[in-house]
């Protein structure tokens, strides 16, 4: 089915459904009494309507950086659930880029060539997929930026947590933990950053710096990229421990996976300092039961996917859509970690 035909069917579905209902209300004979034959015919039409609705479902594509991250695996689950729930067509496609910029570009180009009705993309870097998005724009395929924004190209909206605020909240939580652990005039904090150039890295880093700038008792000891990776987080933290040792009062990680690496490095060095992350991954939250001063600000990727689909449909139906759709994060500590895991995993 061509994109134009499919899109027309989607946009006309609600109108057709409404017309059917009106016909059911006005099915009368010339003498003012309802015709039983017409009523039965209309009932048959209503019974057969699910096939029409199925044909009207839009095809979607979702491209994510890597399923190495539990956060994006949860997006895949939500995407598949959306297919099962009849929110998008069965022909919709999920793309795992394997953290390869060239692979993500190729995946987006494939989605465009397949004439999907709309595209959702969480870009590896803000700059890396601009040309591919512009190809989607030229093909008149609506693009939704999800979780990570893009630097250029036309997008319908950006559905994500407020990553600046996530960075602020996680840094504030780390400071709170440091103050609970020890009474000091000032505290030294390390930052492990994510993928260089990614919008999420820039925003969370800005949030971290905002708190440092606004706090009289907080000093940035050092910042370095850990590439959002547990192994890189371990390596970077080992170097930090060698360089700073007991000067370290706390560690803010721009995602939970790096927190796992930091945890391992601290254990290996017999150091006990607060560590906070972002995302709310299962493996990281499981560490909270034995670590009072570990925490995270959890994102809700499932809600991001369903909201992105909803906004795409609204746009295709001619409705106005806000430029940004914020998804609120959830503070998770030892106090509510078990309840959080029970609800989302």
Detailed description of the structure:
- Strand 6 (187-193), helix 8 (199-214) and strand 7 (218-225) form a beta-alpha-beta unit.
- The protein is elongated.
- The protein starts with a helix and ends with a helix.
- The protein is an alpha/beta fold and 345 residues long.
- A 6-stranded parallel beta sheet has the order 2-1-3-4-5-11, with helices on both faces. It has a 6-stranded mixed beta sheet with strand order 7-6-8-9-10-12, sandwiched between helices.
- The chain has helices at residues 3-26, 36-47, 49-56, 70-84, 101-113, 130-138, 163-181, 199-214, 230-244, 256-268, 282-286, 301-316, 337-344, and strands spanning 60-64, 93-96, 118-121, 143-146, 157-160, 187-193, 218-225, 250-253, 275-279, 294-298, 324-326, 330-332.
- Residues 1-5 and 14-52 have low confidence and may be disordered.
- Helices cover 50% and strands 16% of the residues.
- The longest helix has 24 residues, at 3-26.
- The protein has 3 domains: 3-55; 58-161 and 301-327, Rossmann fold, CATH 3.40.50; 163-298, Rossmann fold (3-Layer(aba) Sandwich), CATH 3.40.50.2300.
């Amino acid at each position: 089915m061509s994109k134009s035909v499919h899109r027309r069917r989607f946009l006309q579905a609600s109108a057709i459904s409404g017309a059917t209902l009106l016909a059911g209300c006005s099915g009368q004979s010339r003498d003012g009494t309802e015709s039983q034959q017409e009523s039965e015919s209309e009932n048959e039409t209503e019974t057969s309507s699910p096939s029409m609705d199925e044909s009207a479902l839009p095809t979607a594509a979702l491209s994510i950086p890597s399923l190495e991250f539990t956060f994006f695996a949860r997006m895949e689950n939500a995407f598949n659930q959306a297919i099962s729930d009849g929110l998008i067509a069965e022909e919709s496609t999920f793309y795992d880029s394997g953290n390869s910029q060239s692979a993500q570009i190729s995946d987006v180009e494939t989605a465009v060539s397949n004439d999907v009705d709309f595209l959702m993309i969480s870009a590896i870097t803000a700059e890396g997929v601009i040309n591919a998005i512009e190809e989607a724009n030229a093909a008149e395929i609506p693009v939704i930026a999800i979780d990570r924004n893009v630097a250029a190209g036309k997008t319908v909206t950006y559905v994500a947590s407020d990553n600046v605020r996530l960075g602020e909240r996680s840094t504030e939580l780390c400071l709170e933990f440091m103050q609970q652990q020890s009474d000091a005039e000032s505290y030294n904090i390390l930052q492990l950053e994510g993928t260089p150039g990614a919008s999420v890295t820039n925003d969370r880093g800005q949030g971290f710096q905002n708190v440092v700038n606004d706090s009289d008792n907080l000093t940035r000891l050092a910042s370095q990229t850990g590439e959002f990776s547990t192994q890189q987080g371990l390596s970077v933290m080992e170097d930090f421990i060698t360089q700073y040792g007991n000067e370290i009062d706390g560690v803010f990680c721009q995602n939970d996976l790096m927190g796992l690496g930091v945890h391992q490095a601290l254990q290996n060095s017999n150091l006990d300092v607060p560590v906070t992350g972002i995302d709310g991954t299962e493996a990281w939250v499981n560490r909270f039961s034995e670590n009072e001063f570990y925490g995270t600000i959890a994102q809700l990727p499932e809600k991001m996917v369903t909201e992105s689909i909803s906004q795409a449909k609204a746009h295709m139906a001619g409705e106005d859509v806000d430029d940004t759709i914020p998804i609120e994060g959830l503070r998770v500590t030892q106090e509510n970690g078990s309840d959080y895991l029970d609800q989302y995993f």
